[in-house]
């Protein structure tokens, strides 16, 4: 067995995924970084390793069930252990309901929902082979807690992830596996900037206006840094959260109140 716990983060090449990898590395985890483009996750892994961390890059498309299973097996073999699966990868289409296409719906569901399901399956297989429990942590969203205009496709995938989190937490509890989700608000990432641009374009306004539309509805009046989200994931990956399962926790600066 490895002397440190092993976490795999999907979509770890940028934004929230990268911040999670950095934080868990600081927490003492060995981190496996999964991405569709090996060069992107390899660059993050190199950065972490040069700083004295322990990171391993793997390439896979989370929409491909077999590729996800192969990647998790590779990580388990590389480290000799596997403890935490973070299903973070996602895409965020933004369109009014009238212009949603079958292709867009299919694409978003394969990555956002499929990725969580295949990641969960692959993690459970690895945990069972290692004869221990584990933690599965899924990326949902504030948009999976409350509907937002122009996010029918994206929001519905994130609502689905909350449902999957609840369902699998009940199924997997006897195997000592907890399942939780984090629900970020509006995070300063490349993906978010694209959403703000689209919203601004739809309204015929500037990109700054697009960003402002988001910040003004947040109680703390600022957009989130990726590290704000990584802080919550750090807690969910730690022993401090051992008695929490099936929860989807908001980390949104005060947008949605439950």
UniProtKB/TrEMBL annotation:
EC code: 1.1.1.304
Catalytic activity: (S)-acetoin + NAD(+) = diacetyl + NADH + H(+)
Alphabetical UniProt keywords: NAD, Oxidoreductase
TM ranges: none
Domain of life: Bacteria
PROSITE patterns per UniProt: ADH_SHORT
Coiled coil start-end: none
Gene Ontology molecular function terms on file: diacetyl reductase ((S)-acetoin forming) (NAD+) activity
Pfam families given in the database record: adh_short
UniProt-listed NCBIfam families: 23BDH, PRK07231.1, PRK08643.1
Protein role: Catalyzes the irreversible reduction of 2,3-butanediol to (S)-acetoin in the presence of NADH.
Family statement drawn from the similarity comment of this UniProt entry: Belongs to the short-chain dehydrogenases/reductases (SDR) family.
Name of the protein: diacetyl reductase [(S)-acetoin forming]
């Amino acid at each position: 067995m490895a002397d440190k716990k092993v976490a795999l983060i999907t979509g770890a090449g940028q934004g929230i995924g990268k911040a999670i990898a950095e934080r868990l590395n600081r927490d003492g985890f060995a981190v496996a970084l999964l991405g569709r483009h090996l060069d992107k996750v390899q660059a993050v892994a190199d950065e972490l390793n040069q700083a004295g961390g322990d990171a391993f890059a793997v390439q896979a498309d989370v929409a491909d069930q077999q590729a996800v299973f192969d990647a998790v097996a590779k990580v388990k073999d590389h480290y000799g252990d596997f403890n935490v699966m973070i299903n973070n990868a996602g895409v965020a289409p933004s369109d009014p309901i009238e212009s949603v296409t079958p292709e867009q719906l299919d694409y978003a569901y394969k990555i956002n929902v499929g990725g969580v399901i295949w990641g969960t399956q692959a993690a459970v297989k690895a945990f069972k082979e290692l004869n221990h429990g584990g933690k599965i942590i899924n990326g949902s969203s504030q948009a999976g807690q409350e509907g937002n205009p122009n996010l029918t496709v994206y929001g519905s995938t994130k609502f689905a992830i909350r449902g999957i989190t609840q369902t699998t937490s009940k199924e997997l509890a006897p195997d000592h596996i907890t399942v939780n989700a984090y629900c970020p608000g509006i995070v300063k990432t490349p993906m978010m900037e694209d959403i703000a641009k689209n919203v601004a374009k739809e309204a015929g306004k500037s990109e700054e206006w697009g960003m402002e539309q988001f910040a003004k509805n947040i109680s703390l009046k600022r957009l989130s840094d990726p590290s704000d989200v990584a802080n919550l994931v750090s807690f969910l990956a730690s022993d401090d959260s051992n008695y929490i399962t099936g929860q989807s926790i908001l980390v949104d600066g005060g947008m949605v109140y439950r």
